[in-house]
Task: structure prediction
Amino acid sequence: MRRDQLEHAIRTACQIIGHEAVVVVGSQSILGSFAEDELPQEATMSIEIDILPLVDDGDETARLADLIEGVAGEWSPFEEQHGFSIDGVDLETAVLPNGWRGRLVKVQNANTAAAAGEPQYIGWCLGKEDLCVAKLCAFREKDQNFVAALLDAGLVDAEVIAKRLLEVPMKHHSSAQSALAWLAAKG
Result:
């Protein structure tokens, strides 16, 4: 995946749901912090972008996520045309540490604009270490490979990730403990 594809996904998701901003919570949110040529291949392999609508109501979030998925999700005409899909997600999709909203990375430029002279859309991408926390709490092999590649490339800080794993909600404590053990073994 490339940065321009991320920007296209942000613009499209905002247009689908009629909102000015969304949060990118999946692996492609790393493109908010780094250009694709700065990243190891394992960090840009995914062809789906997980988008969280920015609304306070859980039912409305789910409705908007379904709308995104229906228009631009896997197997959609959007995916056929552009070579990637947009998955609408809710806050239960990713395990995030306390304070993650204050560390979001803003993506907003000419590529996220609807048209000349109109307001630009904003994609808020997870901060790089918060993304690693979410990936390690999911603890799938592909997520471990993603984080390992970023660690090996020196693009994320293992100490920051470990600290933030201790800041996930209590109901995800066992996932965080497994992630901490993996991180310690990796180090």
Q: What stands out?
A: The radius of gyration is 16 Å.
